[in-house]
Specification:
Helices cover 69% and strands 4% of the residues. It has 196 residues and is mainly α. The protein has one domain: Arp2/3 complex 21 kDa subunit ARPC3, CATH 1.10.1760. A hairpin with a 2-residue loop joins strand 1 and strand 2. Helix 1 packs antiparallel against helix 2, helix 2 packs across helix 5 and helix 2 runs parallel beside helix 7. The protein is globular, with a radius of gyration of 17 Å.
């Protein structure tokens, strides 16, 4: 399915990472703030999953997280499928695209990986998802532009920092202490400074 390397999950450590990230993603979605009925804010953790698991496993993880939240929460903001698209797949896609750009165009350096691929990708992915939510709600006529602007769009910068910081912090710790947990980080690529 989707070219997922299922054999990776035979490793108990890989299973632990997958289920820990699933719990993190579900917890982030359940720890939401409701501004008005239908206007919810929450962090995603999708960028963390994309960088630690790769885009295929991250997509699966986001689908499972949205499904679990849909089962536990009666009033979903639009629909589980649309929520998966905007808060799961879009952040994974943005993070993966930025990672690909960085690997092709930027120097292979640890700080580029952490600052660009983790901090910046996390921040930009939540901004894109929030703006996407606004556009959907506006196009469906659920809220007018004034309500969305005052109650929702103003929160985008406020959400960018914690999402970027959380992504950067988790990836920094993982790269420092357990680099094998991070599917998109390869020691020789980022830490090979040449022979003396």
């Amino acid at each position: 399915m989707l070219g997922i390397e299922w054999r990776r999950l035979r490793d108990l450590e890989a299973q632990a990472v997958f289920f820990a990230l699933l719990a993190l993603s579900v917890g982030a979605r359940l720890g939401r703030i409701e501004l008005q009925p239908g206007l919810d804010l929450h962090l995603f953790g999708a960028s963390i999953a994309a960088l630690m698991l790769g885009w295929r496993f991250a997509t699966l993880l986001q689908a499972l997280a949205v499904g679990l939240v849909a089962l536990s929460w009666q009033r979903y903001w639009l629909s589980p499928a649309l929520d998966l698209l905007l808060t799961g797949l879009l952040p994974v896609l943005i993070t993966t695209a930025l990672l690909d750009f960085a690997q092709r165009r930027l120097p292979a350096h640890l700080f580029v990986y952490l600052l660009f691929n983790a901090f910046l990708a996390g921040a930009l992915s939540i901004a894109a998802a929030q703006i996407g939510k606004c556009l959907i709600l506006l196009s469906l006529g659920v809220f007018d532009l004034g309500t969305l602007g005052e109650n929702f769009l103003l929160t985008v910068p406020a959400l960018m920092f914690p999402e970027g910081f959380a992504t950067g912090a988790v990836l920094t710790l993982a790269v420092a202490y357990r680099p094998r947990w991070v599917a998109t980080f390869h020691d020789p690529s980022y830490l090979d400074f040449g022979s003396p």
